[in-house]
Design a protein that fits this description.
Length: about 200
């Protein structure tokens, strides 16, 4: 990331909205924004598939195809339409082929893909694809339940709304596999809404 350009752009933005970037309270704002953007966009150029592949271990014969579910993995990302954060939880399920993945590695895959300008729909699809390709998994399902500041803090200000999206590959993309995975996710937040409802997060508002 080009920190100098980010700081210069933030300074220009403050001028554009009519404030004085040289007043004491704002003197360090450009640097602080650059620091936060370095975190928000740390996934730029990171190969999430390689993270999954490097974290894989060989599975035993009896483990092949058994469903693994990790619930309530917290994440944050940045909406690419408004550059406002969206924050939520992910429920990740996969049916192993010949490889298993460390549970902590799953969260690193999610974080790498989330740490770039994103749309929630694409985030789920990219996480599912990275896990599927990195492990050569029989199937992957990713449920994301997130609150978008472009909805809660602007426009209609629907502070109580959240968006649920579902992405699936392989054996977990068909009705039976998807149903089993969602049943195991069970009482997790948003699980009751993952029956195919489309996303609606005000991206074009």
């Amino acid at each position: 990331m080009d920190r100098a350009r980010v700081e210069a752009a933030v300074r220009e933005l403050l001028l554009a909205v009519g404030d004085d970037p040289d007043r004491p309270e704002l003197e360090r704002t450009p640097a602080r924004v650059a620091d936060s953007y370095a975190e928000f966009f740390a996934g730029m150029g990171v190969d999430a598939t390689a993270i999954a592949r490097d974290g894989a271990v060989h599975s035993e014969d009896g483990e092949r195809g058994q469903l693994v579910v990790v619930r309530d993995v917290r994440f944050r990302s940045m909406c690419e339409h408004h550059l406002l954060p969206f924050i939520g939880v992910a429920h990740l399920a996969y049916a192993p082929g010949e490889q298993l993945i460390g549970l902590g590695t799953l969260s690193r895959v999610l974080d790498a893909v989330a740490s770039r300008p994103q749309l929630q729909e694409r985030l789920g699809e990219q996480v599912a694809a990275a896990i599927a390709e990195g492990l050569d998994a029989d199937g992957v399902l990713v449920v994301l339940d997130a609150t978008h500041q472009c909805v809660t803090a602007r426009g209609e200000r629907q502070s109580g709304s959240s968006t649920v999206t579902v992405a699936a590959t392989g054996s977990l993309a068909d009705a039976a596999g998807r149903g089993e995975a969602i049943a195991l996710i069970g009482a997790s937040a948003g699980a009751g809404a993952v029956t195919g409802a489309g996303p609606d997060h005000g991206a074009d508002a």
